[in-house]
Structures are given as structure tokens and as C-alpha cells.
Task: structure prediction
Amino acid sequence: MTALREPRVFIISGPSGSGKSTLVKKLLELPGTLLSISCTTRQPRSNERDGEWYNFVLPEEFERMVQRGEFLEHARVFSRHFYGTPRRWFEEARRKGLDLVLEIDVQGAEQVKLKMRDAVAIFILPPSRQELEGRIRARGTDSEEEIARRLDRARQEMQCFTDYDYVVVNDDLDRAGREVQAIALAARCARTRNEDRIRQILDSFGG
Result:
């Protein structure tokens, strides 16, 4: 029986308003990719549907999932709500022979990198604080207190960029989209990920 191929894991992180969700969509345009849908204890926003980008669960159910060891990573964000990546998405990616895309915060990314050293971590930066604030305000969904909290959180998160393999500045969406796709394609071509296939080709030439 052929061994299941370990999925290449792509981590996308960045502050709220950096455009990371849009760039995740760009990454998912590549064939052979699967989105990991996170669980969260926060309430869905008016434009969100359960099971599309998040599965919304009660805090008690989230805690039960933690106790059962169902998360690849989990963290409390903004000291209020919990988010977690169910392990089942990694198992599904392995079963289907796909690469897995995680949109997670810096706490979750740190946990995943400790468990999966070859995961490719990409941090999305806004071009400036002013631009980030403008994007958050344009959504029209946050109070002044929430905007201030998000900007402070962004400042803290951006200090973690050195923990990532790549940084993409999202000042031009088309260019940034091409860059995250290029990173993924280059990672797929890494020698260490393809040694079995390379050896098969060399063997076909007699070694």
C-alpha cells in the first residue's frame, strides 16, 4: 500500500485588516490546496455563515474538544474568545493528498511550527498604521474601543514577524496575491519534499 503523503502546511497570519483572508483565497486558487476551517467561541458576524470560514461553537463544547485533544492548535485571542484548528483537517488533507492552508494568529502559528517544523509561515503586513486603521474603519463594524484594541493588537502581532519564513506587504492586492502563490509553489518544489520522486527519476536512468 502506498504511504499517505504528508501535507505541506501553509500558515497565513497578520493583523486584523491586513487582508490576510483575501490572500488566503488567492492561495486557495492553486490546485491541490485545502482550507482548514477554525473553530471559535465568538458570535458570527452578520455576513458570516457557520462552516464557511469558521465553525461557531459554545465555550463548553470548545473546552470538551480541548480535553479530547481534537485541536492542532488553540489560543485565546483579545483575552476574550477562543480559536482552534481541528486536527481532522490535517488528516483530511493527508487522505486526499492536498496541502493545508491555515489562517491563524501568531499564538497558533507558534504552536503549529513547534509541531511541524517544515510548515511554511507567511506573515501579512499592512503598508502603514494609517492604512490599517482606514481599512478597519471602512468595514463599519467596530466601535472606537474595538478599533483601538485591534490597532494595539496589530502592533503587538507585528513584532512577531521574525518568527515567520516570509513576509508579504499587502499594499497592492494583485502583487501580494502573486507573491503568496509564488511562495507556495516554491515550497512545493523544495528538494527535501521531493527526494523520493527525484530518486525514482534517477533510478529510471540506472541510478
About this structure: The radius of gyration is 18 Å.
